């Protein structure tokens, strides 16, 4: 069954992943307080001024954030490089600390 809210989406994961997804959600909300939450493509989506801003998704071994922002400085790009996966996607392994500050910077670049 497809989840219809971000709460339902997060609740569909094991408890330890729910904690991480909840923190990703809070990080996005803090960086983009005016963004509207929804589910699109069956994953959590944040829209700003009617346009998709950023998506996140939970997987068995990682979480993903899409799309990658443009316009970051060299230090941001270097930090992001280790998480790039495919075109426009960052993957954060669940067995490593999640870089919430990097996620916040990603959202702030999208908002800008």
Overview of the molecule:
- The protein has helices at residues 6-11, 15-31, 74-81, 100-111, and strands at residues 36-40, 43-48, 51-58, 62-66, 90-93.
- With 112 residues, the chain is α+β, with helices and mostly antiparallel strands.
- It has a 5-stranded antiparallel sheet with strand order 1-2-3-4-5.
- The radius of gyration is 13 Å and the shape is globular.
Summarize the structure.
The protein is of the alpha+beta class. It has 4 helices and 5 strands.
Number of helices: 4
* Number of strand elements: 5
Q: What value does the average pLDDT take?
A: 91
What topology, given as strand order, has the largest sheet? Answer: 1-2-3-4-5
How do the SSEs run, as a string of H and E? HHEEEEHEH
What is the CA-based Rg, rounded? 13 Å
- List low-confidence stretches: none
| Major sheet | 5 strands, antiparallel
By secondary-structure content and strand pairing, the structural class works out as alpha+beta
Specify the helix fraction band: 25-40%
> Strand content of the residues, in percent?
25-35%
What would the principal axes of the Cα set say about the shape?
A: globular
State the distance separating the first and last CA atoms: 35 Å
